[in-house]
């Protein structure tokens, strides 16, 4: 999903529980990551969260937020991996207060993953998770997001070709029709966009004050 489509999706979900929760989740992620370079992403050994790491990095870079750029923690990076893909489990042992660990696990997490998360939490790191509602992962997380519980019924789209009733050659056209979109992937796109919001790192009362000023003045505060 490209940036334009993801932005449109977020706009369409404004006011829904999925839109609100993903925004709150992303803003908390920014607010509790106070140490430069302190945002880590981690997941199952066979499903490391490359996708979300890349999108978060792109959106934060585009927004000029360089102190919360994410790093992907890998179980066994190859020796010849480039620096940004060579961060191994030692990074978790160095984690502490002011840092956040975002765990992405679509399936029930293995014991080895849960043990790593528990160790990091004991060192004072804030744990965020996007998962399927697994009880153990939820209990280890300070904040968790379960996309399948938030997805509006029947929400989504799919592209289909429109057949035109004439012989002239035409550019390809598409229309949209309802389809249940994969909620887990959708939520990750929404989180990456919301994390780059201008007020994402502010406390709740500051965001509310800013919104009130904008409503009164009719201009961005």
What is the molecular shape? Answer: globular
Low-pLDDT runs of 5+ residues are 157-166, 168-181
Helicity range of the residues? Answer: 25-40%
Count the E strands. Answer: 7
Largest sheet: 5 strands, parallel
Order of helices and strands: HHEHEHEHEHEEEHH
Adjacency order of strands in the biggest sheet: 2-1-3-4-5
Overall pLDDT metric: 83
Going by helix content, strand content and strand pairing, the class is: alpha/beta
Identify the quaternary structure here.
single chain
Distance between the termini: 31 Å
Q: Number of DSSP helices?
A: 8
Fraction of residues in β-strands = 5-15%
Question: Can you describe this structure in just a few lines?
Answer:
It is built from eight helices and seven strands.
Explain what the structure shows:
There is one protein chain. Helix 3 (50-62) runs parallel beside helix 7. The protein has eight helices and seven strands; from the N terminus they run H-H-E-H-E-H-E-H-E-H-E-E-E-H-H. With 221 residues, it is α/β, with parallel strands linked by helices. The protein has a five-stranded parallel β-sheet with strand order 2-1-3-4-5, sandwiched between helices. A two-stranded antiparallel ribbon has the order 6-7. Helix content is 40%, strand content 13%.
